[in-house]
Design a protein that fits this description.
The protein is mainly α and about 400 residues long. It contains 17 helices and three strands.
Length: about 400
C-alpha cells in the first residue's frame, strides 16, 4: 500500500516539475487499483456520524457486501495507514496546483466494514476505532497545510461520533471503557496548533504575489480558464499589464507578513481567548494613498487571503470538546452512577472532562440520559450544534 501511494506522489511531483502551471492531475492514470466510488443506492452509508448511518443505508445489505468486496484492496490500504507513525505532505509550488485528494469515502468504507462485526465483537471494534482516531490525531499534529489539518479533524470527529454510539449501545466492560479514557485525552498543544498552517498560508500567498509580479503564465488562470504558457491570450496579457499599474509586490508581501504574523500569534491561545483576539484584530494601518492608488491590487489580495481563520479555531475547539465528551461518557458508563446523581458527578469532574471553551461542566439531558457539548460555529456557518453522548441503560 505504501509503495502504491509513493508511485502516485512521485508521478504528481514529476508532473509539477514538468509543468509549473499544472492545474489538474489525473490520479486515476497512475492509481494502482479501482478508484473508490459510492453508487447512488449507497450514498448515505456511514455518513450520519453514528452506527445508525451504517445500519440504515438506503440499500439492501447485499449491495453493501458487494461494495465492500469490490474495494477490498483499498480497504486494506486504509487499515494499513495506521502502521505508519508519521505524516508528511507534498507542498505545492503555488496555489494553482492541485492539492492532495482526501477521500472521506475511504473512511466510510472502513466504517461500513467495521459495523458488520460490532455486535459480535464490540470491544475489538472499539480498539480499532481508537487506533483510527490516534492515526488521524497524528496527522493533525504533523500537518502543515490547513486543509490537511481540517480533513484529519473531520475524520476524528466522525470516528468519535461512531464511538459514542458504540458506548451507548453495548456492554463493553470496564477494560474497554478504561481504554477509551486512556486514549481520549484532550488535544495536545501541537494537535490543536494552527500557527504552522498559518505560515504555510502566508508562504503560498506570497508566492502567488510573486507570480503576479513576474507576470508568469500561471497567473493567466486568474482571468481565464487554466492554460499552458503558449496559449495565454493577448487579452489576458493586457489585463496583467493593467493590474501591474496598481500592484506593488513588495508592499503586498510585507503587508501579508504583518497580517499573518498577527494571526499566528493569536490562533494558538486557548480557544475562547483566540477567538476574542482574532475578533479584536485591527486591520494593519495602510495610508490612504496606498489603499486607493498605490497598491489597491495587493490590498485586495490581502483582504481575501486572510479571511475566516476564526472558524478554524472554532473547529479545532469543537473537536477537542467532542473528545472530552466521549471520554466522559466512557467514564460515566464505567462508574454507572444513578441518573439523579449525574449532575453532581459532572460538577466535580476533572478538567479533562470539561467544556473546551469555558471549562464549565458538560451539559446533561436528564430525560434522554445524554451528556451534551455545545459546539460553536465559525463565521458564516450554521448555528451551534449540540453533540450528544448517551449513557447505556445500565449507567443511566
Amino acid at each position: 500500500p505504501h509503495a502504491a501511494g509513493r508511485r502516485v506522489a512521485a508521478a504528481y511531483e514529476a508532473a509539477l516539475a514538468e509543468r509549473p502551471w499544472l492545474r489538474t492531475f489525473d490520479r486515476e492514470a497512475v492509481y494502482d487499483g479501482e478508484p473508490l466510488t459510492i453508487e447512488q443506492a449507497l450514498s448515505g452509508l456511514c455518513d450520519v456520524g453514528d452506527w445508525r448511518g451504517c445500519d440504515e443505508p438506503p440499500a439492501d445489505r447485499a449491495a453493501v457486501r458487494r461494495w465492500l468486496a469490490r474495494h477490498r484492496e483499498l480497504l486494506r490500504r486504509y487499515r494499513d495507514l495506521r502502521g505508519y507513525p508519521h505524516f508528511t505532505e507534498t507542498l505545492t509550488p503555488g496555489l494553482a496546483a492541485p492539492f492532495a485528494a482526501w477521500s472521506g469515502k475511504a473512511q466510510r468504507l472502513w466504517l461500513a466494514s467495521l459495523a458488520r462485526g460490532r455486535r459480535d465483537a464490540p470491544r475489538a471494534v472499539v480498539e480499532r476505532l481508537l487506533r483510527d482516531i490516534g492515526f488521524w490525531r497524528t496527522v493533525m499534529a504533523e500537518s502543515r497545510w490547513l486543509i490537511d489539518k481540517m480533513t484529519a479533524r473531520a475524520f476524528v470527529q466522525r470516528d468519535l461520533a461512531v464511538l459514542a454510539s458504540a458506548v451507548a449501545e453495548a456492554e463493553l466492560g470496564d477494560a474497554a471503557l478504561e481504554s477509551i479514557g486512556r486514549e481520549l485525552v484532550p488535544l495536545s498543544a501541537r494537535e490543536r496548533a494552527l500557527s504552522a498552517t498559518v505560515w504555510t498560508e502566508f508562504r503560498m500567498t506570497a508566492q502567488t504575489m510573486r507570480h503576479l509580479e513576474r507576470g508568469s503564465e500561471e497567473t493567466c488562470g486568474i482571468f481565464s480558464a487554466p492554460v499552458p504558457p503558449a496559449e495565454c491570450s493577448i487579452i489576458d496579457r493586457a489585463k496583467l499589464s493593467l493590474v501591474h499599474l496598481f500592484y506593488q509586490p513588495r508592499a503586498s508581501i510585507n503587508l501579508a507578513h504583518r497580517r499573518w504574523g498577527r494571526i499566528a500569534a493569536a490562533v494558538d491561545a486557548p480557544p475562547a481567548q483566540a477567538l476574542e483576539r482574532l475578533a479584536a484584530l485591527v486591520d494593519v494601518s495602510v495610508p490612504r494613498v496606498e489603499r486607493y492608488y498605490y497598491n489597491p491590487v495587493g490590498r485586495l489580495f490581502n483582504d481575501v487571503a486572510w479571511l475566516g481563520m476564526d472558524r478554524y479555531v472554532a473547529r479545532m475547539a469543537n473537536a477537542d470538546g467532542l473528545i472530552r465528551l466521549v471520554a466522559l461518557q466512557a467514564e460515566l458508563a464505567r462508574r454507572a452512577p444513578d441518573r439523579e446523581d449525574v449532575p453532581a458527578v459532572l460538577a466535580g469532574s476533572g478538567a479533562r472532562y470539561r467544556d473546551s471553551y469555558t471549562g464549565a461542566p458538560m451539559g446533561w439531558d436528564a430525560d434522554a440520559a445524554c451528556l451534551v457539548f455545545s459546539a460553536r460555529p465559525g463565521p458564516g456557518e450554521k448555528e451551534r450544534s449540540a453533540h450528544r453522548a448517551c449513557l447505556p441503560e445500565r449507567a443511566s
